[in-house]
Specification:
This is Peptidase A1 domain-containing protein. The protein contains 5 helices and 33 strands. The protein has 450 residues and is mostly beta strands.
C-alpha cells in the first residue's frame, strides 16, 4: 500500500492542472461550438442501452453512432478513431484557440505502451479503460457528435450537431467493453468530461440526469415520467425526488461520493443493523480513502470484505426472521459464482408492483440528505439458476474498479430504473429509488419518437 501511495500522483497537482484546462477548454470550445444558434441552448437527450453480457451501459451520441461506455468516474471522452471520425488534432501547448494543456495521467493502472504524457506534440491526454484498468497516452481531437434537444417531455427535432474535445486512443484499448463500444464517455466533474464540456459549450446549466437503461439528459431540464394520479398522467420527477449532498474526494476528484453513515435491513417487522466499526463508511479526505462512491463501470455493488461480512449477516438474519410462516426459504450452498448469498423457496409476489416480496436495504444518509436511499427488489437481487442471489459482493483481489480505496462502490445494478439527477453546481444528487414502486419506470417515458 505504501508503495502504491508513493507512486500515486499528488492530488494537489490535479487542481492546478484543472484550472489550466478549464480556462483553455472554454477558449477551445468557443471555436468549436456549433454556430447559427443563440445560447442558452435547450437541454440535450441521448439514448442509453444495456449490454447483457457485461451488465454495463453505453451511450450513443457520436455522429457515427458508435456506442461509448458510460463511466460516471470517467475524466474525458475517448474513442478509437480514424481520420473520418475525428478531426482537428490539438497539440499540447499549442496556441490555436487556447491550449489543451498537458495532463498528469489520472489512471492508476497499467499502461499499454511506454509513452509518457506530453512527451510529444499531440499525446497530451490519458485514455483509461475502467473495465481492464488499462490506459494509454492519446492525442486530443475534436469529435463530431449529435443528439436531440428536449423540453423535458419529448425529444425535439431536428437532431443537433456539435463537437466535443476527446482523446483518440489505440484500437486495443476498448478490450472487454460492451459489444460494439469504441471507447468511453466520462461523466465526472472533471472539465473534459462529456457533461462538463456540454455545460461550458452550451450554457444550459451544470446538471445531467440518468435513467438507466433508457436515457441521459444534459442540462437543467424537467424529467417527466408517468405518475399514477397525476394529471395528465406525467410528473416532473426532479421536483419530487429526495436529494443528498455530493462529497468530493481530493485524491479522486472525478468520483461522485455520497454520505452514507450506516446500513440496515428490514422485512415484515424483522429489522437488523449491519454492525460496522465507527466511521467505517466515512470518506477520509486527507488520505483520500473510504467513503461510498457511485460507479456505472461496476455491474454490482461491492463492499470492503469486513463491511460485506457484517452486512451479509444482517441481511441473512432478516430473511430468516422475516419470512412468511408456512413458506420455505433456504440458502443455496454453494452460491453460484460470483455471488456469495443466494436463496431458493417461497418469495410471494407483491401486487403492485408485481415483483418478489423481498427485504429493504437502507443506506442511511448523513446531514443534508432529505431521505435515506432504500434499495428495493430488482436493484439488488438477480435470478440465477432458479435462485435469487444478492447482487452485492465483497471486494476481491486484483485492484479496484474505481480510483482510490472506497469502502463501498454502488454499482450499475443499484442505479437501474432509478432517476438520478446530478447537480454539479449545487453539489447534490437527486435519487428516485426504484421507479417500479412509484408505478413508473424509465421505459415509461415518452421522450423518444421511435
Amino acid at each position: 500500500m505504501d508503495r502504491m501511495r508513493k507512486n500515486t500522483p499528488n492530488p494537489n497537482n490535479y487542481f492546478v492542472l484543472h484550472r489550466i484546462i478549464v480556462s483553455s477548454l472554454l477558449l477551445l470550445l468557443s471555436c468549436t461550438a456549433a454556430s447559427g444558434q443563440q445560447a442558452p441552448y435547450k437541454p440535450l437527450i441521448s439514448r442509453l442501452a444495456k449490454d447483457l453480457n457485461t451488465s454495463l451501459y453505453t451511450i450513443t451520441i457520436k455522429a457515427d453512432k458508435s456506442p461509448l461506455l458510460l463511466d460516471l468516474a470517467g475524466s474525458l471522452v475517448w474513442s478509437t478513431c480514424s481520420p473520418s471520425s475525428a478531426h482537428g488534432t490539438v497539440a499540447c501547448g499549442s496556441g490555436k484557440c487556447g491550449s489543451a494543456a498537458s495532463q498528469e495521467c489520472p489512471c492508476r493502472c497499467m499502461h499499454l505502451e511506454g509513452g509518457q504524457i506530453g512527451e510529444s506534440g499531440s499525446r497530451c491526454a490519458c485514455a483509461g479503460n475502467p473495465v481492464t484498468r488499462q490506459c494509454s497516452t492519446a492525442g486530443l481531437r475534436s469529435f463530431a457528435m449529435s443528439a436531440n434537444s428536449t423540453d423535458g417531455a419529448v425529444e425535439l427535432l431536428p437532431e443537433e450537431s456539435f463537437d466535443v474535445l476527446g482523446a483518440c486512443a489505440p484500437g486495443s484499448l476498448p478490450r472487454l467493453l460492451p459489444a460494439g463500444a469504441t471507447g468511453v464517455a466520462g461523466f465526472s466533474r472533471r472539465p473534459l468530461s462529456l457533461p462538463s464540456q456540454l455545460a461550458a459549450q452550451r450554457g444550459f446549466g451544470g446538471k445531467f440526469a440518468l435513467c438507466l437503461p433508457v436515457f441521459a439528459i444534459f442540462g437543467d431540464s424537467p424529467v417527466n415520467l408517468s405518475a399514477p394520479g397525476q394529471a395528465p398522467g406525467y410528473a416532473d420527477y426532479t421536483t419530487i425526488i429526495p436529494y443528498t449532498p455530493l462529497l468530493t474526494n481530493p485524491a479522486n476528484p472525478a468520483g461522485y461520493y455520497i454520505p452514507v453513515k450506516g446500513i440496515s435491513v428490514s422485512w415484515h417487522g424483522a429489522n437488523a443493523q449491519a454492525i460496522l466499526p465507527s466511521a467505517a463508511l466515512d470518506l477520509d479526505t486527507v488520505a483520500g480513502t473510504g467513503g461510498v462512491v457511485l460507479s456505472t463501470a461496476t455491474p454490482y455493488m461491492i463492499m470492503r470484505p469486513d463491511l460485506f461480512d457484517a452486512f451479509a449477516k444482517a441481511f441473512d438474519d432478516v430473511i430468516m426472521r422475516g419470512k412468511i410462516p408456512m413458506t420455505t426459504v433456504e440458502r443455496v450452498v454453494p452460491a453460484p459464482k460470483p455471488f456469495k448469498l443466494c436463496y431458493s423457496g417461497g418469495f410471494p409476489l407483491l401486487k403492485r408492483p408485481v415483483l418478489p416480496d423481498l427485504p429493504r436495504i437502507n443506506l442511511e444518509l448523513g446531514a443534508g440528505a432529505t431521505r435515506n436511499w432504500t434499495l428495493l427488489n430488482n436493484n439488488y437481487m438477480v435470478q440465477v439458476d432458479g435462485a435469487l442471489c444478492l447482487a452485492i459482493l465483497p471486494m476481491g483481489p486484483g485492484g479496484m474498479p474505481v480510483d482510490g480505496e472506497p469502502a463501498v462502490v454502488i454499482g450499475a445494478k443499484q442505479m437501474e430504473n432509478n432517476l438520478l439527477v446530478f447537480d454539479v453546481e449545487k453539489q447534490v444528487l437527486g435519487f428516485s429509488m426504484l421507479l417500479d414502486f412509484s408505478l413508473s419506470s424509465c421505459i415509461s417515458s415518452k421522450f423518444f419518437r421511435n
